[in-house]
Amino acid sequence: MVKNKNRNNNNFFLIAEAGINHGGNFQKAIKLINAAKETGAHAIKFQTYKTEKRVSRKNKVFNILKKYCEKKNYFFFNME
Length: 80
Hints:
By secondary structure, the chain is an alpha/beta fold. It is built from two helices and three strands.
């Protein structure tokens, strides 16, 4: 990943795409959040689907990831 040296520049909003790269693994999702934050992205976007392998908004993990991002003062996006 490339470090965003302009994180405090208000002229753009950089969103890291996590998608489904966590494969339903909570620890991988946390690592993706941390990596995106460290590179200077302003937010991270996950995708959730209604299948057993992916995280639905109704799944408790969804809210845990969302709250983790909030704790890190980081935007959380989701596409369903």
